[in-house]
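How a chain folds remains the central question behind the approach discussed here. The record that follows shows the chain in one-letter code together with its fold in token form:
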Amino acid sequence: MKAKIICKSLEEVKGNLLLLCKEQGIEVATTYLPESFNRKQDYGVVYAVKDKEVLALTPYWRTDDGLYELQTDLVKSPQLRYVAK
């Protein structure tokens, strides 16, 4: 089983991704949490971005008790770009 971080809010999910990146020496400017397909943000992927390049990403999901779990294993994707609409 992969390690997870328990978060109380989506803002905490984003903040913890910044901390994970810092711990692994990945310098990012911000994090983005795109809206889920169901528009409830019960699950999805949070992106760490610098200069429109996605440097790392990881999934998150809402648990039955309303908290969020963030997977600590980061996926590095140097060829993925983030474009906001």
About this structure: The chain is about 15% helix and 35% strand. The chain has one domain: 4-71.
